[in-house]
Amino acid sequence: MRETRRAPGSERTPIEHFPALDAIENIRHAFIERIPGINVSHDKAEALKRLDAVHREARQQIGIGDWPLLTAQQVHGDKIAIVDRHVASDKEFAGCDGLITSQSRVALGIHVADCCAIYVVDPKTPVIGLVHSGKKGTERAIVSKAIQEMREYFGSDPSELIVQLSPCIRPPHYEIDFAARIIGQCRAAGVKKIHDPGVCTACDIDRYYSYRAEKGKTGRMLALLGLV
């Protein structure tokens, strides 16, 4: 399901929802697509600055506007930040590419523009994870490490996890099908419920930002996930 609405500074705020995650009652999630009308042909820091107001409006739209936003620095590594206590304000976790928490009413956020944002949900424990996995993160099997830490730290059963991949770049626009590798890593870790939209970001730059297609001067989609 894809929802849109008017937002300040843009024609509309395109928010994508995934049916597999919509079916889980105790979470909120979204994937914020390209924002029309905002010039993001800049470096990442400037692009995110220009998108910030609309991204905040989108958080309000899905009912998590007053939750702290926890993000990873995203250094293309495999370090996972474990958030085991409530955080009162927005925070970026240095040196990390993934976040795991059992805390309610905090929003995990990952920015992507061709890389994959991976939503990992244990609806029973409950605990959630959000992971940034591109070429390097996939080579380092970051999603496998996130699943392992969810099991070891929170007691999650991998067979009960629900994993959702975001749209990401795919062949022939990229030489590696890292979405397929991510799925393989999840299966090897014991995950049975894996959902992939099969959508290539570089194939539709009217809807998505693509670092490869736009030669590095582009914005970022924002993946959001939180426990109610």
CATH H level, superfamily name: CNF1/YfiH-like putative cysteine hydrolases
Give the DSSP E fraction (strand runs of 2 or more residues).
Answer: 25-35%
The N- to C-terminal Cα distance equals 20 Å
Biggest sheet character: 7 strands, mixed
Query: What's the alpha carbon Rg, rounded to whole Å?
Result: 16 Å
Q: What is the oligomeric state here? A: single chain
The computed structural class is alpha/beta
- Helix % is 10-25%
The CATH C-level class name: Alpha Beta
SSE topology string: EEHEHEEEEEEEHHEHEE
Mean pLDDT, all residues: 94
**Number of discrete helical segments:** 5
Net shape: globular
Unreliable segments (pLDDT under 50, ≥5 consecutive)?
A: 1-11
Determine the CATH topology: CNF1/YfiH-like putative cysteine hydrolases
How many domains would you count in the coordinates?
Answer: 1
Number of strand segments: 13
Features:
CNF1/YfiH-like putative cysteine hydrolases, 228 residues, 5 helices, disordered N terminus, 13 strands, 7-stranded mixed β-sheet, 6-stranded mixed β-sheet, alpha/beta
Description:
The protein has a single domain (2-227), classed as 4-Layer Sandwich (CNF1/YfiH-like putative cysteine hydrolases), CATH 3.60.140.10. Helix content is 22%, strand content 30%. It contains five helices and 13 strands. It has helices spanning 19-22, 44-61, 135-139, 142-154, 178-188; strands spanning 2-7, 10-16, 27-32, 69-72, 80-83, 91-93, 98-101, 107-112, 116-122, 127-133, 162-165, 193-195, 221-227. Strands 1-2-3-13-8-4-6 form a seven-stranded mixed beta sheet. It has a six-stranded mixed beta sheet with strand order 5-7-10-9-11-12. Strand 9 and strand 10 (127-133) form a beta hairpin. The longest helix has 18 residues, at 44-61. The protein is globular, with a radius of gyration of 16 Å. Residues 1-11 have low confidence and may be disordered.
